[in-house]
């Protein structure tokens, strides 16, 4: 390896350490406090297991956790992608007609404000104890940030650019394709980042209900099962697994935006 390559690698490692160092230190301190509380107050494992016990439970149940991680991750990703597609189409309709926006936007807000645990049982009655029900719940949870962000991006057009397109005789379709959609891409990325974490929450909440009537094995199903058997160490391991899944989806959206949409991200 040449000297320049070594210096470049050293710089990258140093930058990564500066970027992730504070977060890692917070994690270390949190685990240390957790250990001290569990040990100092002699907490029973059923109430607050020690970090080592959670790690041991994760290792012992790794196959169940991996299987559940795959099922929940697939549902969360499918719901997120469906929400991005559906939300973008709705946003285009909202941006093209003020009457449509005023008529239907309150119902999009309704989907965000209604408790998902209240409508999940209804969705199970209508859709069944199926994978598709988990995806539907995930779409409902993820839809509002996408619609809100993309609609704002489609309408946040500089008046001078809009007048220039009109001056050259550009129709509504050309203005949408050449001006509004490119300008809305950073807003879409922002909404997708917000929804990436919500996708995991929606999928797990749906699995709390779907897992009761089928052999579907997601993280939410495992949590319900282990909570019933007071396996707190395994339950905490499942919680950490779901957190890692949310971080992975967020990182995937962020990485995709930086790789494929760099020219728009630079403007945000």
What is the total number of structural domains? 2
Give the N-to-C terminal Cα separation. Answer: 37 Å
Low-confidence stretches: none
The largest β sheet comes out as: none
Q: Kindly provide the name of the CATH class of the largest domain.
A: Mainly Alpha
Secondary structure blueprint with pairings:
Elements: H1 3-40, H2 51-60, H3 62-96, H4 98-113, H5 116-127, H6 131-155, H7 159-167, H8 172-210, H9 219-228, H10 232-260, H11 262-265
Domain ABC transmembrane type-1: 69-253
Subcellular location: Cell membrane
Protein name: Aliphatic sulfonates transport permease protein SsuC
Care to describe what's here?
By secondary structure, the chain is an all-alpha fold. The protein has two domains: 1-42; 47-267, Orthogonal Bundle (MetI-like fold), CATH 1.10.3720. The chain is 85% helix and 0% strand. It has helices at residues 3-40, 51-60, 62-96, 98-113, 116-127, 131-155, 159-167, 172-210, 219-228, 232-260, 262-265. Helix 3 (62-96) packs antiparallel against helix 4 (98-113), helix 3 crosses helix 10 (232-260) and helix 9 (219-228) packs antiparallel against helix 10. The longest helix is centred in the C-terminal third of the chain and has 39 residues, at 172-210. The radius of gyration is 23 Å and the shape is globular. The two termini are 37 Å apart. 33% of the residues are buried. This is Aliphatic sulfonates transport permease protein SsuC. The chain crosses the membrane at residues 20-41, 68-92, 104-129, 135-157, 184-210, 234-253. Belongs to the binding-protein-dependent transport system permease family.
